Amino acid sequence: MKVVIFAGGFGTRLMEETEARPKPMVEIGGKPILWHILKMYEQHGFNEFVICLGYKATYIKEYFYNYYLHNSDVTIELANNSINVHYSNTESFKITLIDTGLHTNTAGRLKRIEKYVKGETFMLTYGDGVSDVNFVKLLEFHRLHGRLATLTSVQVPGRFGNLEINSKGEVDSFVEKPVGDGMWINGGFFVLEPEIFRYLETNVDDVQWEKEPLSSIANDQQLAAYKHEGFWKCMDALRDRHELEEMWSSGNAKWKTW
Protein backbone atom coordinates (compact mmCIF):
# COMPACT_ATOMS: atom_id res chain seq x y z
CA MET A 1 0.00 0.00 0.00
CA LYS A 2 1.33 3.42 -0.97
CA VAL A 3 1.69 6.37 1.39
CA VAL A 4 1.21 9.85 -0.10
CA ILE A 5 2.97 12.72 1.67
CA PHE A 6 2.33 16.45 1.22
CA ALA A 7 5.79 18.05 1.11
CA GLY A 8 5.36 21.07 -1.14
CA GLY A 9 4.31 23.97 1.08
CA PHE A 10 6.34 27.11 1.79
CA GLY A 11 6.50 26.57 5.56
CA THR A 12 6.15 30.31 6.16
CA ARG A 13 5.60 29.94 9.93
CA LEU A 14 9.00 28.27 10.17
CA MET A 15 10.80 30.75 7.94
CA GLU A 16 13.88 30.72 10.17
CA GLU A 17 14.48 27.19 8.90
CA THR A 18 12.65 27.09 5.57
CA GLU A 19 14.26 30.02 3.79
CA ALA A 20 17.03 27.68 2.65
CA ARG A 21 15.21 24.34 2.53
CA PRO A 22 11.67 22.93 2.41
CA LYS A 23 9.96 22.34 5.73
CA PRO A 24 9.99 18.51 5.50
CA MET A 25 13.79 18.70 5.29
CA VAL A 26 14.20 20.57 8.59
CA GLU A 27 16.25 18.22 10.75
CA ILE A 28 15.44 16.52 14.03
CA GLY A 29 18.39 14.62 15.46
CA GLY A 30 20.40 15.17 12.29
CA LYS A 31 17.73 13.70 10.00
CA PRO A 32 14.95 15.51 8.10
CA ILE A 33 11.54 15.23 9.74
CA LEU A 34 10.45 13.65 6.45
CA TRP A 35 12.87 10.77 7.16
CA HIS A 36 11.29 10.28 10.60
CA ILE A 37 7.85 10.05 8.97
CA LEU A 38 9.07 7.46 6.46
CA LYS A 39 10.58 5.42 9.30
CA MET A 40 7.29 5.54 11.22
CA TYR A 41 5.46 3.96 8.30
CA GLU A 42 8.25 1.50 7.49
CA GLN A 43 8.08 0.20 11.06
CA HIS A 44 4.53 -1.00 10.34
CA GLY A 45 5.32 -2.52 6.95
CA PHE A 46 4.52 0.43 4.65
CA ASN A 47 7.59 1.42 2.66
CA GLU A 48 6.28 2.67 -0.70
CA PHE A 49 5.85 6.43 -0.84
CA VAL A 50 4.57 9.08 -3.24
CA ILE A 51 5.87 12.49 -2.17
CA CYS A 52 4.12 15.63 -3.43
CA LEU A 53 6.80 18.26 -4.03
CA GLY A 54 6.54 22.01 -4.61
CA TYR A 55 8.69 24.56 -2.79
CA LYS A 56 12.39 23.76 -3.33
CA ALA A 57 11.49 20.42 -4.90
CA THR A 58 15.05 19.91 -6.16
CA TYR A 59 16.35 19.92 -2.58
CA ILE A 60 14.29 16.83 -1.72
CA LYS A 61 15.08 15.11 -5.02
CA GLU A 62 18.81 15.57 -4.54
CA TYR A 63 18.64 14.33 -0.95
CA PHE A 64 17.12 11.01 -1.96
CA TYR A 65 19.19 10.72 -5.15
CA ASN A 66 22.34 10.84 -3.01
CA TYR A 67 20.82 8.99 -0.04
CA TYR A 68 22.70 5.73 -0.60
CA LEU A 69 26.04 7.49 -0.82
CA HIS A 70 25.40 9.66 2.23
CA ASN A 71 24.54 6.62 4.35
CA SER A 72 27.45 4.40 3.32
CA ASP A 73 31.15 4.03 4.10
CA VAL A 74 33.07 4.43 0.84
CA THR A 75 36.52 4.57 -0.74
CA ILE A 76 36.76 6.95 -3.69
CA GLU A 77 39.64 6.75 -6.18
CA LEU A 78 39.84 10.16 -7.79
CA ALA A 79 42.20 9.00 -10.56
CA ASN A 80 39.51 6.87 -12.19
CA ASN A 81 36.42 8.18 -10.37
CA SER A 82 35.62 4.75 -8.92
CA ILE A 83 33.68 4.18 -5.70
CA ASN A 84 33.93 1.13 -3.46
CA VAL A 85 31.09 0.84 -0.96
CA HIS A 86 32.16 -0.90 2.26
CA TYR A 87 29.04 -0.59 4.38
CA SER A 88 25.56 0.71 3.78
CA ASN A 89 22.96 1.67 6.36
CA THR A 90 20.01 2.49 4.13
CA GLU A 91 16.32 1.72 4.46
CA SER A 92 14.01 -0.19 2.15
CA PHE A 93 12.13 2.90 1.00
CA LYS A 94 10.65 3.01 -2.50
CA ILE A 95 10.01 6.68 -3.20
CA THR A 96 8.24 8.37 -6.10
CA LEU A 97 8.94 12.11 -6.15
CA ILE A 98 6.35 14.19 -8.01
CA ASP A 99 6.61 17.94 -8.59
CA THR A 100 3.00 19.01 -8.02
CA GLY A 101 3.59 22.72 -8.55
CA LEU A 102 4.98 25.61 -6.56
CA HIS A 103 1.69 27.30 -5.66
CA THR A 104 -0.66 24.31 -5.80
CA ASN A 105 -2.83 23.77 -2.73
CA THR A 106 -3.24 20.39 -1.04
CA ALA A 107 -6.31 19.21 -2.98
CA GLY A 108 -4.52 20.02 -6.23
CA ARG A 109 -1.40 18.17 -5.12
CA LEU A 110 -3.49 15.12 -4.30
CA LYS A 111 -5.26 15.29 -7.65
CA ARG A 112 -1.94 15.44 -9.51
CA ILE A 113 -0.71 12.14 -8.09
CA GLU A 114 -3.95 10.27 -8.80
CA LYS A 115 -2.39 8.10 -11.50
CA TYR A 116 0.24 6.84 -9.05
CA VAL A 117 -2.38 5.40 -6.68
CA LYS A 118 -5.24 4.83 -9.12
CA GLY A 119 -7.54 2.00 -8.16
CA GLU A 120 -5.84 1.37 -4.80
CA THR A 121 -6.53 2.09 -1.17
CA PHE A 122 -3.75 4.39 0.00
CA MET A 123 -2.58 6.43 2.98
CA LEU A 124 -2.01 10.17 3.15
CA THR A 125 -0.19 12.42 5.59
CA TYR A 126 1.69 15.70 5.93
CA GLY A 127 5.45 16.21 5.86
CA ASP A 128 5.66 17.93 9.23
CA GLY A 129 3.96 15.70 11.82
CA VAL A 130 5.17 12.74 13.87
CA SER A 131 3.24 10.30 16.04
CA ASP A 132 3.29 6.83 17.57
CA VAL A 133 0.02 5.92 15.85
CA ASN A 134 -0.22 2.24 14.87
CA PHE A 135 -0.85 2.33 11.12
CA VAL A 136 -1.85 -1.34 10.98
CA LYS A 137 -4.63 -0.71 13.50
CA LEU A 138 -5.59 2.46 11.65
CA LEU A 139 -5.98 0.45 8.45
CA GLU A 140 -8.01 -2.22 10.25
CA PHE A 141 -10.31 0.48 11.63
CA HIS A 142 -10.75 1.95 8.15
CA ARG A 143 -11.67 -1.40 6.63
CA LEU A 144 -14.04 -2.22 9.49
CA HIS A 145 -16.03 0.98 8.99
CA GLY A 146 -16.14 0.79 5.20
CA ARG A 147 -16.01 4.54 4.50
CA LEU A 148 -14.16 6.27 1.67
CA ALA A 149 -11.91 8.14 4.09
CA THR A 150 -10.60 7.74 7.61
CA LEU A 151 -8.62 10.41 9.42
CA THR A 152 -6.69 10.13 12.65
CA SER A 153 -8.12 12.42 15.31
CA VAL A 154 -6.03 13.63 18.24
CA GLN A 155 -6.25 15.86 21.29
CA VAL A 156 -3.40 18.30 21.69
CA PRO A 157 -2.01 19.64 24.97
CA GLY A 158 -2.97 23.19 25.84
CA ARG A 159 -0.19 25.78 25.73
CA PHE A 160 -1.06 27.18 29.14
CA GLY A 161 -2.14 25.90 32.54
CA ASN A 162 -5.80 25.92 33.51
CA LEU A 163 -6.99 27.65 36.70
CA GLU A 164 -10.22 27.16 38.60
CA ILE A 165 -10.83 30.34 40.65
CA ASN A 166 -13.58 30.69 43.21
CA SER A 167 -15.63 33.80 44.04
CA LYS A 168 -13.05 34.90 46.61
CA GLY A 169 -10.30 34.99 44.02
CA GLU A 170 -8.68 31.85 45.42
CA VAL A 171 -7.31 29.13 43.16
CA ASP A 172 -9.15 25.86 43.78
CA SER A 173 -7.12 23.87 41.27
CA PHE A 174 -4.37 24.20 38.72
CA VAL A 175 -3.65 21.85 35.83
CA GLU A 176 -0.45 22.44 33.86
CA LYS A 177 -1.08 22.23 30.09
CA PRO A 178 -4.10 19.89 30.12
CA VAL A 179 -4.87 17.84 27.04
CA GLY A 180 -7.21 19.80 24.81
CA ASP A 181 -10.67 20.80 25.99
CA GLY A 182 -12.51 17.64 25.03
CA MET A 183 -12.28 18.49 21.33
CA TRP A 184 -10.72 16.14 18.80
CA ILE A 185 -8.86 17.64 15.83
CA ASN A 186 -7.63 16.33 12.51
CA GLY A 187 -4.16 14.93 13.12
CA GLY A 188 -3.68 13.81 9.53
CA PHE A 189 -2.66 10.19 8.89
CA PHE A 190 -5.50 9.33 6.52
CA VAL A 191 -6.53 6.10 4.87
CA LEU A 192 -8.34 6.77 1.58
CA GLU A 193 -10.18 4.83 -1.08
CA PRO A 194 -9.60 5.77 -4.74
CA GLU A 195 -13.21 6.94 -5.01
CA ILE A 196 -12.25 10.10 -3.10
CA PHE A 197 -10.89 11.48 -6.38
CA ARG A 198 -14.45 12.08 -7.59
CA TYR A 199 -14.51 14.89 -5.01
CA LEU A 200 -11.53 16.39 -6.85
CA GLU A 201 -12.91 16.35 -10.40
CA THR A 202 -12.98 20.11 -11.03
CA ASN A 203 -9.97 22.45 -11.02
CA VAL A 204 -8.77 22.14 -7.43
CA ASP A 205 -5.31 23.70 -7.63
CA ASP A 206 -6.42 26.51 -5.29
CA VAL A 207 -8.44 24.27 -2.98
CA GLN A 208 -7.42 22.88 0.39
CA TRP A 209 -8.03 19.15 0.75
CA GLU A 210 -9.01 19.83 4.38
CA LYS A 211 -11.86 22.18 3.40
CA GLU A 212 -14.36 21.58 0.56
CA PRO A 213 -13.36 18.03 -0.43
CA LEU A 214 -13.12 16.63 3.10
CA SER A 215 -16.28 18.50 4.16
CA SER A 216 -18.16 17.02 1.21
CA ILE A 217 -16.93 13.53 2.06
CA ALA A 218 -18.11 14.03 5.65
CA ASN A 219 -21.50 15.39 4.51
CA ASP A 220 -21.94 12.23 2.43
CA GLN A 221 -21.35 10.14 5.57
CA GLN A 222 -18.13 8.77 4.08
CA LEU A 223 -15.64 9.98 6.70
CA ALA A 224 -14.59 8.02 9.78
CA ALA A 225 -12.33 9.17 12.62
CA TYR A 226 -9.78 6.93 14.31
CA LYS A 227 -9.15 8.28 17.81
CA HIS A 228 -5.47 8.22 18.72
CA GLU A 229 -4.76 8.88 22.38
CA GLY A 230 -1.00 8.47 22.14
CA PHE A 231 1.73 10.87 21.08
CA TRP A 232 1.24 13.38 18.27
CA LYS A 233 3.21 16.50 17.40
CA CYS A 234 3.16 18.86 14.43
CA MET A 235 6.24 20.97 13.66
CA ASP A 236 4.31 24.13 12.96
CA ALA A 237 6.71 26.73 14.38
CA LEU A 238 10.28 27.07 15.57
CA ARG A 239 9.36 26.23 19.17
CA ASP A 240 7.90 22.91 17.94
CA ARG A 241 11.16 22.11 16.21
CA HIS A 242 13.06 22.84 19.45
CA GLU A 243 10.68 20.63 21.44
CA LEU A 244 11.09 17.73 19.02
CA GLU A 245 14.87 18.13 19.05
CA GLU A 246 14.88 18.06 22.86
CA MET A 247 12.74 14.90 22.88
CA TRP A 248 15.12 13.22 20.46
CA SER A 249 18.33 14.23 22.22
CA SER A 250 16.96 13.20 25.64
CA GLY A 251 15.92 9.75 24.39
CA ASN A 252 12.24 10.58 24.83
CA ALA A 253 11.19 10.66 21.16
CA LYS A 254 7.86 8.84 21.50
CA TRP A 255 7.39 8.63 17.75
CA LYS A 256 10.57 6.54 17.45
CA THR A 257 9.00 3.10 17.44
CA TRP A 258 11.62 1.49 15.19
Q: What do these coordinates show?
A:
By secondary structure, this protein is an alpha/beta fold. Helices cover 27% and strands 28% of the residues. The chain contains 9 helices and 16 strands. The chain has helices spanning 15-18, 33-43, 57-65, 67-70, 106-112, 114-117, 135-145, 212-219, 238-249, and strands at 2-7, 27-28, 31-32, 48-53, 72-77, 82-88, 94-99, 122-126, 129-131, 149-154, 162-165, 171-175, 185-186, 190-192, 223-227, 232-234. Strands 1, 4, 7, 8, 10, 13, 14 and 15 form an 8-stranded mixed β-sheet that branches. A two-stranded antiparallel ribbon has the order 2-3. Strand 11 and strand 12 (171-175) form a beta hairpin.
Tally of separate helices: 9
User: What do the pLDDT scores average to?
Assistant: 91
Fraction of helical residues: 25-40%
| Low-confidence blocks of residues | none
What is the 3D shape?
globular
Describe the secondary structure blueprint for this structure.
Blueprint: E1 2-7, H1 15-18, E2 27-28, E3 31-32, H2 33-43, E4 48-53, H3 57-65, H4 67-70, E5 72-77, E6 82-88, E7 94-99, H5 106-112, H6 114-117, E8 122-126, E9 129-131, H7 135-145, E10 149-154, E11 162-165, E12 171-175, E13 185-186, E14 190-192, H8 212-219, E15 223-227, E16 232-234, H9 238-249
Parallel strand pairs: 1-4, 1-8, 4-7, 10-15
Antiparallel strand pairs: 2-3, 5-6, 8-14, 9-16, 10-13, 10-14, 11-12
